[in-house]
Amino acid sequence: MVRLYTDKVTIGYGERLIVKDLSVQIPDKQITTIIGPNGCGKSTLLKAITRIISQQSGAVVLDGMNISKENTKVLAKKMAILPQTPESASGLTVGELVSYGRFPYQKGFGRLTKKDYEVIDWALDVTGTTDFKFRPVDSLSGGQRQRVWIAMALAQETDIIFLDEPTTYLDMAHQLEVLELLQKLNAEQERTIVMVLHDLNQAARFADYIIALKDGHIVKAGNCEEVITHDVLKEVFHIDAEIGRDPRTNKPMCITYNLLKGECQHEETIDSIYSAVSVNY
Fold first, then answer.
1. pLDDT category, 179, cuts 50, 70, 90?
2. Domain ranges of the chain
Protein backbone atom coordinates (compact mmCIF):
# COMPACT_ATOMS: atom_id res chain seq x y z
CA MET A 1 0.00 0.00 0.00
CA VAL A 2 1.27 3.49 -0.87
CA ARG A 3 -0.17 6.58 0.83
CA LEU A 4 2.67 8.90 -0.11
CA TYR A 5 4.32 9.43 -3.47
CA THR A 6 5.83 12.06 -5.74
CA ASP A 7 4.71 12.54 -9.32
CA LYS A 8 7.41 13.92 -11.61
CA VAL A 9 8.64 16.52 -9.13
CA THR A 10 11.31 19.00 -10.17
CA ILE A 11 13.08 20.80 -7.33
CA GLY A 12 15.75 23.44 -7.45
CA TYR A 13 17.18 26.60 -5.99
CA GLY A 14 16.81 29.46 -8.44
CA GLU A 15 17.91 28.24 -11.85
CA ARG A 16 19.90 25.31 -10.41
CA LEU A 17 17.88 22.10 -10.60
CA ILE A 18 18.67 19.46 -7.97
CA VAL A 19 15.91 16.95 -8.76
CA LYS A 20 14.14 16.69 -12.12
CA ASP A 21 10.96 14.76 -12.98
CA LEU A 22 11.38 12.41 -10.03
CA SER A 23 8.60 9.94 -9.22
CA VAL A 24 9.04 7.89 -6.07
CA GLN A 25 6.73 5.84 -3.86
CA ILE A 26 7.14 5.57 -0.09
CA PRO A 27 5.89 2.18 1.18
CA ASP A 28 3.42 2.54 4.03
CA LYS A 29 4.25 1.15 7.47
CA GLN A 30 7.83 0.36 6.46
CA ILE A 31 11.27 1.85 7.04
CA THR A 32 12.65 3.59 3.96
CA THR A 33 16.18 4.94 3.72
CA ILE A 34 17.53 7.26 1.05
CA ILE A 35 21.21 6.88 0.19
CA GLY A 36 23.53 8.59 -2.25
CA PRO A 37 26.61 10.84 -2.49
CA ASN A 38 26.72 14.37 -1.15
CA GLY A 39 24.76 16.81 -3.28
CA CYS A 40 22.66 14.16 -5.03
CA GLY A 41 19.34 15.57 -3.77
CA LYS A 42 18.57 13.42 -0.72
CA SER A 43 17.84 16.26 1.70
CA THR A 44 16.22 18.35 -1.02
CA LEU A 45 13.78 15.54 -1.77
CA LEU A 46 12.93 15.17 1.92
CA LYS A 47 12.27 18.91 2.22
CA ALA A 48 9.94 18.88 -0.77
CA ILE A 49 8.00 15.84 0.43
CA THR A 50 7.45 17.52 3.80
CA ARG A 51 6.62 20.93 2.25
CA ILE A 52 9.60 22.71 3.79
CA ILE A 53 10.41 23.83 0.26
CA SER A 54 8.20 23.96 -2.82
CA GLN A 55 8.80 21.96 -5.94
CA GLN A 56 8.96 23.82 -9.24
CA SER A 57 6.69 21.31 -10.95
CA GLY A 58 4.99 17.99 -10.28
CA ALA A 59 3.15 16.98 -7.12
CA VAL A 60 3.65 15.34 -3.73
CA VAL A 61 0.55 13.31 -2.90
CA LEU A 62 -0.50 12.02 0.53
CA ASP A 63 -3.77 10.13 0.98
CA GLY A 64 -4.87 11.24 -2.46
CA MET A 65 -4.35 14.95 -1.69
CA ASN A 66 -1.71 17.24 -3.17
CA ILE A 67 0.09 18.40 -0.01
CA SER A 68 0.53 21.91 -1.43
CA LYS A 69 -3.22 22.32 -0.96
CA GLU A 70 -3.44 20.66 2.45
CA ASN A 71 -4.15 22.59 5.67
CA THR A 72 -0.93 23.01 7.67
CA LYS A 73 -2.27 21.59 10.94
CA VAL A 74 -3.93 18.67 9.17
CA LEU A 75 -0.66 17.87 7.41
CA ALA A 76 1.29 18.22 10.66
CA LYS A 77 -0.88 15.50 12.21
CA LYS A 78 0.18 13.12 9.45
CA MET A 79 3.92 13.75 9.07
CA ALA A 80 6.77 15.02 11.24
CA ILE A 81 10.23 16.04 10.08
CA LEU A 82 13.57 16.16 11.89
CA PRO A 83 15.81 18.25 9.60
CA GLN A 84 19.52 17.72 9.20
CA THR A 85 20.29 20.95 11.04
CA PRO A 86 17.43 21.78 13.45
CA GLU A 87 16.77 25.43 14.22
CA SER A 88 18.24 26.94 17.35
CA ALA A 89 16.37 26.23 20.58
CA SER A 90 18.12 28.99 22.51
CA GLY A 91 16.42 29.81 25.81
CA LEU A 92 14.19 26.73 25.84
CA THR A 93 14.24 23.83 28.25
CA VAL A 94 14.07 20.31 26.89
CA GLY A 95 10.47 19.89 28.03
CA GLU A 96 9.47 23.15 26.36
CA LEU A 97 11.07 22.15 23.07
CA VAL A 98 9.42 18.73 23.04
CA SER A 99 6.06 20.38 23.81
CA TYR A 100 6.26 22.14 20.43
CA GLY A 101 5.48 18.77 18.90
CA ARG A 102 1.96 19.15 20.27
CA PHE A 103 1.27 22.31 18.26
CA PRO A 104 -1.04 20.62 15.69
CA TYR A 105 -3.38 19.51 18.50
CA GLN A 106 -3.65 22.81 20.37
CA LYS A 107 -6.72 25.00 20.23
CA GLY A 108 -7.66 28.43 21.53
CA PHE A 109 -4.85 29.86 23.64
CA GLY A 110 -2.67 26.84 23.02
CA ARG A 111 -2.67 25.48 26.55
CA LEU A 112 -1.33 21.97 26.99
CA THR A 113 -3.83 19.33 28.08
CA LYS A 114 -3.31 16.27 30.26
CA LYS A 115 -3.04 14.22 27.08
CA ASP A 116 -0.32 16.55 25.76
CA TYR A 117 1.74 16.18 28.92
CA GLU A 118 1.39 12.39 28.79
CA VAL A 119 2.65 12.29 25.21
CA ILE A 120 5.54 14.64 26.02
CA ASP A 121 6.64 12.45 28.93
CA TRP A 122 6.36 9.34 26.73
CA ALA A 123 8.52 10.92 24.03
CA LEU A 124 11.14 11.91 26.59
CA ASP A 125 11.10 8.42 28.08
CA VAL A 126 11.53 6.46 24.84
CA THR A 127 14.39 8.71 23.71
CA GLY A 128 16.15 8.52 27.08
CA THR A 129 15.92 12.26 27.70
CA THR A 130 13.62 12.39 30.74
CA ASP A 131 16.48 13.44 33.02
CA PHE A 132 17.04 16.50 30.82
CA LYS A 133 13.43 17.72 30.94
CA PHE A 134 14.14 20.89 32.92
CA ARG A 135 17.60 21.57 31.53
CA PRO A 136 18.27 24.20 28.85
CA VAL A 137 18.67 22.63 25.42
CA ASP A 138 21.82 24.73 24.92
CA SER A 139 23.49 22.98 27.87
CA LEU A 140 23.33 19.54 26.24
CA SER A 141 25.92 17.79 24.14
CA GLY A 142 25.34 17.37 20.40
CA GLY A 143 24.18 13.79 20.82
CA GLN A 144 21.83 14.66 23.65
CA ARG A 145 20.31 17.50 21.63
CA GLN A 146 19.75 15.16 18.72
CA ARG A 147 17.72 12.79 20.89
CA VAL A 148 15.67 15.72 22.21
CA TRP A 149 14.80 16.81 18.67
CA ILE A 150 13.73 13.24 17.91
CA ALA A 151 11.55 13.34 21.03
CA MET A 152 9.86 16.46 19.68
CA ALA A 153 9.15 14.68 16.40
CA LEU A 154 7.70 11.71 18.30
CA ALA A 155 5.50 14.02 20.39
CA GLN A 156 3.82 15.09 17.17
CA GLU A 157 2.22 11.59 17.05
CA THR A 158 2.24 11.28 13.29
CA ASP A 159 1.91 8.16 11.17
CA ILE A 160 4.94 9.21 9.12
CA ILE A 161 8.27 10.44 10.50
CA PHE A 162 11.03 11.90 8.29
CA LEU A 163 14.57 12.16 9.60
CA ASP A 164 17.50 13.70 7.75
CA GLU A 165 20.66 11.96 8.98
CA PRO A 166 19.30 11.25 12.48
CA THR A 167 22.56 9.70 13.71
CA THR A 168 24.60 12.86 13.14
CA TYR A 169 26.73 13.83 16.18
CA LEU A 170 25.99 10.54 17.93
CA ASP A 171 28.57 8.01 19.03
CA MET A 172 28.26 4.38 17.96
CA ALA A 173 26.12 3.27 20.90
CA HIS A 174 23.68 6.15 20.59
CA GLN A 175 23.44 5.69 16.82
CA LEU A 176 22.31 2.15 17.44
CA GLU A 177 19.88 3.26 20.16
CA VAL A 178 18.22 5.76 17.80
CA LEU A 179 17.94 3.32 14.91
CA GLU A 180 16.60 0.55 17.15
CA LEU A 181 14.06 3.01 18.57
CA LEU A 182 12.85 3.89 15.08
CA GLN A 183 12.71 0.20 14.22
CA LYS A 184 10.65 -0.45 17.35
CA LEU A 185 8.21 2.37 16.51
CA ASN A 186 7.79 0.86 13.08
CA ALA A 187 7.29 -2.69 14.33
CA GLU A 188 5.06 -1.98 17.32
CA GLN A 189 3.14 1.12 16.18
CA GLU A 190 3.32 0.65 12.40
CA ARG A 191 4.78 4.10 11.88
CA THR A 192 6.21 4.82 8.46
CA ILE A 193 9.84 5.90 8.84
CA VAL A 194 11.72 7.72 6.07
CA MET A 195 15.30 8.75 6.69
CA VAL A 196 18.44 9.84 4.94
CA LEU A 197 21.46 7.80 6.00
CA HIS A 198 25.09 8.02 4.92
CA ASP A 199 26.08 4.65 6.34
CA LEU A 200 25.26 1.92 3.83
CA ASN A 201 25.47 -0.88 6.37
CA GLN A 202 23.06 0.87 8.71
CA ALA A 203 20.71 1.40 5.77
CA ALA A 204 20.88 -2.29 4.87
CA ARG A 205 20.41 -3.41 8.45
CA PHE A 206 17.41 -1.28 9.35
CA ALA A 207 15.58 -0.53 6.10
CA ASP A 208 12.80 -2.45 4.44
CA TYR A 209 13.13 -0.29 1.33
CA ILE A 210 16.11 1.67 0.01
CA ILE A 211 16.17 4.46 -2.55
CA ALA A 212 19.59 5.08 -4.13
CA LEU A 213 19.92 8.56 -5.65
CA LYS A 214 22.55 10.04 -7.92
CA ASP A 215 22.41 13.49 -9.52
CA GLY A 216 18.75 13.89 -8.60
CA HIS A 217 17.48 10.68 -10.13
CA ILE A 218 16.85 7.17 -8.84
CA VAL A 219 19.50 4.63 -9.76
CA LYS A 220 17.74 1.81 -7.93
CA ALA A 221 14.89 1.40 -5.45
CA GLY A 222 13.92 -1.81 -3.69
CA ASN A 223 14.84 -3.98 -0.75
CA CYS A 224 18.41 -4.19 0.52
CA GLU A 225 19.12 -7.30 -1.56
CA GLU A 226 18.30 -5.32 -4.70
CA VAL A 227 20.11 -2.09 -3.79
CA ILE A 228 23.19 -3.04 -1.76
CA THR A 229 24.94 -4.71 -4.70
CA HIS A 230 28.29 -4.31 -6.40
CA ASP A 231 26.81 -2.81 -9.57
CA VAL A 232 24.51 -0.31 -7.81
CA LEU A 233 27.24 0.94 -5.47
CA LYS A 234 29.60 1.23 -8.42
CA GLU A 235 27.16 3.47 -10.28
CA VAL A 236 26.11 5.55 -7.27
CA PHE A 237 29.39 5.95 -5.37
CA HIS A 238 32.05 5.01 -7.98
CA ILE A 239 33.50 2.28 -5.81
CA ASP A 240 34.45 -1.35 -6.38
CA ALA A 241 32.68 -2.85 -3.37
CA GLU A 242 32.98 -6.31 -1.90
CA ILE A 243 29.53 -7.36 -0.65
CA GLY A 244 29.18 -9.94 2.10
CA ARG A 245 26.63 -10.93 4.71
CA ASP A 246 25.99 -9.44 8.12
CA PRO A 247 26.49 -12.43 10.46
CA ARG A 248 23.69 -11.23 12.76
CA THR A 249 21.00 -10.23 10.25
CA ASN A 250 22.12 -12.13 7.13
CA LYS A 251 21.53 -8.95 5.15
CA PRO A 252 24.06 -7.73 2.58
CA MET A 253 26.79 -5.42 3.80
CA CYS A 254 29.76 -3.63 2.32
CA ILE A 255 32.83 -5.40 3.68
CA THR A 256 35.52 -3.46 1.84
CA TYR A 257 35.95 -1.41 -1.30
CA ASN A 258 38.38 0.28 -3.65
CA LEU A 259 37.98 3.68 -5.21
CA LEU A 260 37.60 3.40 -8.97
CA LYS A 261 40.47 5.41 -10.41
CA GLY A 262 39.46 8.24 -12.66
CA GLU A 263 35.84 8.10 -11.48
CA CYS A 264 36.06 10.54 -8.55
CA GLN A 265 37.40 13.98 -9.28
CA HIS A 266 36.10 15.96 -6.33
CA GLU A 267 37.08 15.82 -2.68
CA GLU A 268 33.40 16.14 -1.66
CA THR A 269 32.55 12.96 -3.59
CA ILE A 270 35.41 11.09 -1.95
CA ASP A 271 34.26 12.23 1.50
CA SER A 272 30.75 10.97 0.80
CA ILE A 273 32.11 7.55 -0.15
CA TYR A 274 34.06 7.19 3.08
CA SER A 275 31.04 8.18 5.18
CA ALA A 276 28.78 5.84 3.23
CA VAL A 277 30.75 2.67 3.80
CA SER A 278 31.72 3.25 7.43
CA VAL A 279 30.53 0.58 9.82
CA ASN A 280 28.92 2.15 12.88
CA TYR A 281 27.54 -0.78 14.80
1. very high
2. 79-157
Question: Using N-to-C axis directions, what is the helix angle for 142-155 and 172-189, rounded to 10°?
Answer: 10
Amino acid (1-letter code) at residue 84? Q
Compute the half-sphere exposure of residue 166: CA atoms within 13 Å on the CB side of its CA: 33
Q: How far apart are CA 228 and CA 237, in angstroms?
A: 12
Q: Model's pTM, two decimal places?
A: 0.87
Three-state DSSP class for residue 230: helix
User: Mean per-residue pLDDT for 200-223?
Assistant: 97
Q: How far is Cα of residue 247 from the mean position of the Cα atoms in its chain?
A: 26
Distance CA 108, CA 106 (A): 7
What is the secondary structure of 112-169 as a DSSP string?
Answer: PPHHHHHHHHHHHHHTT-GGGTTSBGGGS-HHHHHHHHHHHHHHT--SEEEEESTTTT
- What end-to-end distance do the CA atoms of the chain give, in Å? 31
Give the pairing of strands 65-66 and 2-13: unpaired
